[in-house]
Design goal:
By secondary structure, this protein is largely without helices or strands. It contains no helices and two strands. The radius of gyration is 13 Å and the shape is globular.
């Protein structure tokens, strides 16, 4: 499914576990409670930063993804690969970032209040 345009698509509660979504566009998509465990979302484009993306992205790959200003509150990103991701001004309040890789990630202005960063690398 790489390079799919999901603009405006309702993916709430979708099971995208292990999906190859490399280079896909999720502008204005609804991803609430989507299961993204092991999905490859690198590099990802999300233009509507107003949508909350809570749910489960354990082990997902967001390498080089533009998640600037994204609302990722309480998202479970345990073991996720966020190398070189742009998380500037993203809201990661209460997110689980345990053992994830943040090498080269941009975190300027990111809100990390209550985030679990235990074992996170690259900070």
């Amino acid at each position: 499914m790489a390079l799919v345009d999901f603009t405006g698509t309702d993916l709430r509660q979708a099971n995208l576990q292990g999906s190859d979504l490399r280079g896909s566009t999720l502008n204005d998509a609804y991803l609430n409670d989507a299961k993204l465990v092991g999905a490859d979302l690198s590099p990802l484009s999300i233009s509507d930063r107003g949508r909350a993306i809570p749910g489960n992205a354990i082990g997902a790959s967001f390498v080089g993804a533009d998640l600037s200003r994204a609302k990722l509150r309480e998202l479970n990103l345990t073991n996720a690969d966020l190398r070189r991701a742009d998380l500037s001004d993203a809201d990661l309040t209460g997110a689980k970032l345990r053992s994830c890789s943040l090498d080269g990630a941009k975190l300027e202005g990111a809100i990390l209040e209550g985030a679990d960063l235990d074992g996170a690398r690259g900070l």
